[in-house]
Design brief:
With 270 residues, this protein is an alpha/beta fold. The chain has one domain: Alpha/Beta hydrolase fold, catalytic domain (Rossmann fold, 3-Layer(aba) Sandwich). It is 34% helix and 14% strand. The strands form two sheets. It has a seven-stranded mixed β-sheet with strand order 1-3-2-4-5-8-9, sandwiched between helices. Strands 6-7 form a two-stranded antiparallel ribbon. Strand 8, helix 8 and strand 9 form a beta-alpha-beta unit. This is Alpha/beta hydrolase. GO terms for molecular function: hydrolase activity. InterPro entries: AB_hydrolase_1, AB_hydrolase_fold. Keywords: Hydrolase.
Length: 270
């Protein structure tokens, strides 16, 4: 008799960073991001230095049940610790939007729509119907799409393919997004090629949008210091309109060179 192999059940992982006595911040990472990645580590270090006790949520990369495997574990973690401030990126932004909690959300390039075009847009609905959890659909994501400071090793450490079951689950979550909370702030790069920028704009009132210069991961982009200052203000309660008129920190402004932040552009690890 041939036994059918069991699928490994996806698991949400949470690591804590900073002083437990500081203000709690739930940070829901994007697809394939890990706290140990240099660009993510840079952001975690800056958040803890700013005075946050960060709960970094690493999401499964190949789930098939959105509520059970993604939303419920993250919601339970936040409720158990009475966390009322949430930062999220990409897939993490899709999960955070479904948490249904009385929290303030700051979204970074949320994955609220598929960035498919041409033939890919025609084929994607057919691919999603395939009854398999095997990751066989290439993501097509490049280092340039994510940010100039993204290391090749970080990209290689993440998933290269997605499964039809995962894509079907994500599509269902995108189609069932709850109403937008007017207190939330959404950061978006208009040149983002990973997520559907139009889907972000369709869901978010213009008054709640903050554009930034860079790739899908602002924290792996050369102008990340300028964006980070606005993210800090948003976490502190500033509304999007005040952030958009933030002078030298605004996207496209001619502020000081980003090298002044004390960081150096990492060398390629190809």
């Amino acid at each position: 008799m041939r036994l059918r192999s069991r699928r490994r059940r996806p698991t949400v992982r949470v690591t804590q960073h900073g002083d437990p006595g500081d203000d709690d911040l739930l940070f829901v990472l994007g697809w394939g991001n890990k706290p140990g990645h240099r660009s993510v580590e840079w952001l975690l270090d800056r958040l803890t230095y700013e005075g946050y006790h960060v709960h970094a949520v690493e999401l499964p990369t190949n789930g098939w049940e959105f509520e059970r495997q993604y939303v419920n574990p993250v919601r339970a973690y936040a409720v158990d610790r009475d966390i009322d401030l949430v930062l999220s990126h990409s897939t993490g932004g899709l999960v955070a939007a479904h948490l249904d909690l009385a929290v303030r959300n700051v979204f970074l390039s949320p994955w609220w729509g598929m960035a498919a075009s041409g033939l890919d847009r025609l084929l994607l609905p057919l691919v999603r119907r395939l009854p398999t959890t095997r990751p066989l659909v290439p993501s097509g994501i490049s280092r340039e799409d994510l940010g100039e400071l993204k290391l090749a090793a970080e990209l290689a450490d993440g998933p290269a393919n997605a499964s039809p079951a995962f894509l079907r689950m994500i599509h269902g979550a995108q189609e069932s997004l709850p109403p937008f909370n007017p207190d939330d702030v959404v950061f978006v790069s208009l040149s983002d090629r990973v997520v559907d920028v139009r889907a972000i704009g369709d869901r978010t009132p213009s008054a709640n949008l903050v554009p930034y210069d860079g790739g899908h991961e602002f924290f792996a982009s050369e102008r990340r210091e300028r964006t980070l200052s606005m993210v800090f203000d948003a976490l502190d309660g500033a509304d999007a309109s005040s952030l958009r008129s933030g002078g030298s920190d605004a996207p496209g402004s001619t502020g000081p060179d980003d090298s002044a932040d004390g960081t150096q552009r990492p060398q390629s690890m190809d």
